[in-house]
Amino acid sequence: MAVRNYGVNDAVSPLREEDVLFSRKEAARMLRISIATLDRWHALGEGPASVRVGARRLYRLSELRRFVNEGSAR
């Protein structure tokens, strides 16, 4: 069995800026709202879209920007 050497070109490409993930606390700070408001919006199906990573709910920068630019709930 051959051993594969992984070079620089085989590395995973870096995240694009819009794909960076933010915690609930960071997202709330960016939106200038409380974490409780962000949680309430999530429970009501409003606010910016989030993704689950394990037990954590995270927010993509692109979704936070979309939410601000649209000025409305999803």
Radius of gyration: 17 Å
Helix percent reads 25-40%
Structural class: alpha+beta
Gross morphology is globular
- The span between the termini is 52 Å
Order of helices and strands: EHHEEH
What kind of sheet is the major sheet?
3 strands, antiparallel
Percentage of β-strand residues: 5-15%
* Number of E strands: 3
Total domain modules: 1
If you had to describe this structure to a student in words, what would you say it looks like?
It is a single chain. By secondary structure, the chain is α+β, with helices and mostly antiparallel strands. It has one domain (18-70). It is 38% helix and 14% strand. It contains three helices and three strands; from the N terminus they run E-H-H-E-E-H. A three-stranded antiparallel beta sheet has the order 1-3-2. Helix 1 (24-31) packs across helix 2. The chain is globular, with a radius of gyration of 17 Å. The termini are far apart. The model has no long low-confidence stretch (mean pLDDT 84).
Short description, anyone?
The chain is an alpha+beta fold and 74 residues long. Helices cover 38% and strands 14% of the residues. The chain has one domain (18-70).
Can you tag this structure with a few keywords?
alpha+beta, three-stranded antiparallel sheet, 3 helices, 38% helix
